[in-house]
C-alpha cells in the first residue's frame, strides 16, 4: 500500500464506523468460536497501524506483523511494542506450527498470489489452529478505494472457501457483512466511488458524528444474527477457518 494509506488508516481506525463495526463483529466471532485461555498466540498479519490489536489482545497474546516499517512506527506510537517486520512478502519469518490464531483483516486482497499467502498462514498455525480472514466482497463493487489501495481482487464466499480448502482448512463460519447497509454501499458505488479515476485516492466518505455512530448499530445486530445464519450479500466477506489436524482423522 502507499504510505498515505497507512496514515489515513491511523487517522480513522478508532472513530470511523466501518472500522468500529468490523472490530465489533470480529470480537463477537472470536468470543464464540475462539475462547480465550492462557498462552494463546495470535498473529496479526498486515497489522497496519494497529487498529485491531486491542481487540485481538482480549483473546490472547498478539504479535503484529507488517511488510512496511512505517506501519510498525504507527503501532509503536500507540504503545504496541510487540510488532515485527515480516521477513518477506510471503514469509512471516515465524516457526512452523507456532500460532493458535492468524488474523488477516482486509489483507489477502493485497497479495498478488493470495494462495501462497494462505499456504504460509497454514504453515505457521498449529494443527487445529484458526484463521480469521476478512476481504472485500464482489467484483461488481470494485471502486476507487480498491485502485488506490492496490487491491488485486474482491472475493465471493465460494471462491474463498475453495481456496482455503485447497490449503488444508475447514470452514467454521463464513458470511458476508454489512448486509443492512449494503443498499447504501451499492448506491454510493454507482454514483460516486465506483467511477474510474486517473489518479485514484484512498478516501472514505466521512459522516457527522451521530450518523457515524448510528451506522455501527446494524453491525451489532449482524454480530448477533451470525450466531444463527449467514448473510447472502454484503460489501465484506468474513471467514473463520480451522487448520485440519490430520492426526485426528
Q: What does this protein structure show overall?
A:
- There is one protein chain.
- The protein has 249 residues and is of the alpha/beta class.
- It has a single domain, classed as Vaccinia Virus protein VP39 (Rossmann fold, 3-Layer(aba) Sandwich), CATH 3.40.50.
- It is 37% helix and 20% strand.
- The protein has ten helices and seven strands.
- It has a seven-stranded mixed beta sheet with strand order 3-2-1-4-5-7-6, sandwiched between helices.
- Helix 2 (17-33) packs parallel to helix 10.
- Residues 43-133 form the Methyltransferase type domain.
- Pfam families: Methyltransf_11 (PF08241).
- The chain crosses the membrane at residues 176-194.
- It comes from Candidatus Doudnabacteria bacterium RIFCSPHIGHO2_01_FULL_46_14.
- One of its GO terms (molecular function) is S-adenosylmethionine-dependent methyltransferase activity.
Helices, strands, pairings?
Elements: H1 3-12, H2 17-33, E1 41-45, H3 53-56, E2 61-66, H4 69-77, E3 83-85, E4 99-105, H5 114-124, E5 125-136, H6 144-148, H7 157-166, E6 169-177, H8 182-193, H9 209-214, H10 217-225, E7 236-243
Which residue ranges are poorly predicted, with pLDDT under 50 across at least 5 consecutive positions?
Answer: none
CATH homologous superfamily caption: Vaccinia Virus protein VP39
Report the count of strand segments: 7
Q: Please, how many helices?
A: 10
Separation of the first and last Cα atoms: 41 Å
| Domain count | 1
Q: Tell me, what's the shape? A: globular
Q: What is the correct CATH architecture?
A: 3-Layer(aba) Sandwich
**Mean pLDDT over all positions:** 89
CATH-derived topology: Rossmann fold
What's the helical proportion of residues?
25-40%
Amino acid at each position: 500500500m502507499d504510505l498515505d494509506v497507512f496514515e489515513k488508516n491511523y487517522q480513522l481506525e478508532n472513530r470511523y464506523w466501518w472500522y468500529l463495526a468490523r472490530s465489533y463483529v470480529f470480537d463477537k466471532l472470536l468470543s464464540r468460536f475462539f475462547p480465550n485461555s492462557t498462552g494463546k498466540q495470535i498473529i496479526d498479519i498486515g497489522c497496519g497501524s494497529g487498529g485491531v490489536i486491542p481487540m485481538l489482545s482480549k483473546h490472547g497474546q498478539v504479535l503484529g506483523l507488517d511488510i512496511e516499517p512505517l506501519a510498525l512506527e504507527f503501532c509503536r506510537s500507540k504503545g504496541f511494542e510487540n510488532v515485527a517486520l515480516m521477513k518477506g512478502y510471503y514469509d512471516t519469518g515465524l516457526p512452523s506450527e507456532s500460532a493458535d490464531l492468524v488474523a488477516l483483516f482486509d489483507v489477502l486482497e493485497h497479495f498478488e498470489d493470495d494462495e501462497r499467502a494462505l499456504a504460509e498462514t497454514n504453515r505457521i498455525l498449529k494443527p487445529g489452529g484458526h484463521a480469521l480472514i476478512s476481504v472485500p466482497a464482489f467484483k461488481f463493487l470494485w471502486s476507487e478505494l480498491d485502485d488506490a489501495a492496490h487491491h488485486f481482487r474482491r472475493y465471493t464466499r465460494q471462491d474463498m472457501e475453495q481456496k482455503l480448502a485447497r490449503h488444508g482448512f475447514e470452514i467454521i463460519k463464513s458470511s458476508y457483512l454489512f448486509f443492512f447497509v449494503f443498499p447504501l454501499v451499492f448506491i454510493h458505488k454507482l454514483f460516486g466511488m465506483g467511477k474510474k479515476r486517473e489518479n485514484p485516492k484512498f478516501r472514505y466518505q466521512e459522516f457527522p458524528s451521530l450518523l457515524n455512530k448510528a451506522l455501527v448499530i446494524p453491525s451489532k445486530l449482524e454480530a448477533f444474527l451470525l450466531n444463527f445464519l449467514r448473510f447472502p450479500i454484503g460489501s465484506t466477506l468474513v471467514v473463520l477457518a480451522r487448520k485440519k489436524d490430520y492426526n485426528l482423522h
